[in-house]
Amino acid sequence: MSAGHAVATVAEGPYFDELERGQVFRAPGVTLTSGLVDAHRAVVGGRLALALDAALCAEVTGGAGQPPLAPPNVVWDVAIGQSTVVTHHVKANLFYRGLVFRRTPRVGDTLRTTTEVVALRQNRPRPGRRPTGLAVLRITTVDQLGRPVLDFWRCAMLPLRDPDRATGHDDDTSTVGAPPDPAALAAVVDGFDLARFAELTAAGPRFADLAVGQTWRVGGGDVVSSAPELARLTLNVAEVHHDALAAGGRRLVYGGHTIGLAFAQVTRALPGLVTVAGWEGCDHTGPVHEGDTLRGEITVEGLAPLPSGTGGLARLRVQVRADDEAGEDNGRDVLDWRLHAVFA
Question: What homologous superfamily is domain 16-161+178-343 in, according to CATH?
Answer without folding.
Answer: Hotdog Thioesterase (3.10.129.10)
